[in-house]
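Morning!

This is the sequence you dropped in the shared folder:
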Amino acid sequence: MANLDWLEWNCIPDSINFKVTQHGSFPPCIEKVELSRGSDLKLLALGNGNGDFDFSQDNRINKLRPGEFLPYLEDTFGNTEFGELVRLKGVSLRSSNSNLSEQKVFLNAEVNEAEVINCEAPITTHVEWIVNFSLKPYILSRATTRKQYDTFTRQRSERDKIERNSSRKERMTFDHFCCDCIVDGKNWSLVVGKVTDKVADPKCLPGFIEFSDINNCLPSENTKQIILASLSFTIGRQVVSAGSTSLAEGGDRVSYTVKKVYLLGQENAYKQPSMPPTPLDPTLQQNFVDENKVSSIVNAVAAKMKDLNMEYPLFLLWLGQVSPLDVRAAHLGAAIESLRDSYCVSCKLDTTLLPKNVWKTAIEEPLLKTFDDVTANLDESIKESAEIKILRNKLGNLNDKSSNMKYDEFFDLISLKIGKVENAGLKERNRAAHGSPYSSAQYPGLVMTTNALYTLFNRIVLKLTNAADCYIDYSTDGYPVRDIDHPLGGPDGDGCPAKM
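The structure's back. Tokens below.
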């Protein structure tokens, strides 16, 4: 595609103005809306109009606490001076002001999504604009050659040709790779890459996913979310959408969508290194990206995404990676537990020691009756106390398997060997979850322990999906590659956990 260096995902280098035709969230006095995107990637809308609308009587705004927003379900529609259709979704009123002498009214709002439809034509290419995309230190395997004529043109290397000749004299950049994946039985040919610094602020690591030759079949939101989640796991960092562009044959723009960016720990996430679960090149030397290997991992993870409800464990994983070190283990441990429980549910594993019907009739009911008989002669104040009720409830939970028992059964079931490093990491999760403080002297060991939890999550996913037969051990200095069946090595590679 010759025309892809746009600022579409950041969409609006200059603001867009449109006349309101359907007000939706805006009051009737608002006639025009100016849509723009801030440096923090939020979508902002300024509505203005004429009238005597009294905002002091508008409880929608005046009852909000500082920082709160009022969400509305109604969409706002309008037309630009060029005849483009604009639709705003998820408008939240923010603040207002007015000039009473001139009866001018202004209303600030935040927008979740804006769609601009330029024309009606068959769509052949769909581009999803993404942020927080980086594969360093790997080199993207394909190059884009740029030439300056009367108009700027660009040409990508062909899908069946990998550009690796860095001595070429043309102005070129290794900036993308190709990937084929299957989601819900449909094949997708993807081009994944980064945009140039001249197009977007490099601080937010902008990139794109190009869906080629889609024959007027747009990828659904579910398809895009599965691909984004699978790609995020593959490259070892959360990648999220900032918008999209649909193109007709020849590159003419049919429509584009701009979204509010929901990236966990936004500023912190941009600074995090990429930590892929397994090497992405065939030489294991962090060289050019192996497209076949990336495609294999993305496909394997995407195939299990729904069955294992994997998007939520991944959400907890990325939350852990951008959280303060003191609580990181709690989130990473929760990600592992969520993944474990999803798998156990899919396999219909028992979470109790005895069958529930046997426990209830043969043990629980007689046990609770005995407890009631024993406590019947206590003082009324003690018998009705919260403590007695808590003790009684605990008796009902005696049949539940402990978390450690569930882990042992889970690891045995998936044939994953666990050592001292993994067990120490899972234990540390409980300490962080219960708010135990750490001293500065413990932080180096805590870094390696949280790395162990991150690596354990990766091992589990790779094992469950058969995505790879080796993994990168981030619990060991130097990050060696180990066989998927070998436990974590710990800081010194000797199988001992970090000292706290």
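Headline: The longest strand covers residues 85-99.

More detail when I'm at my desk.
O.
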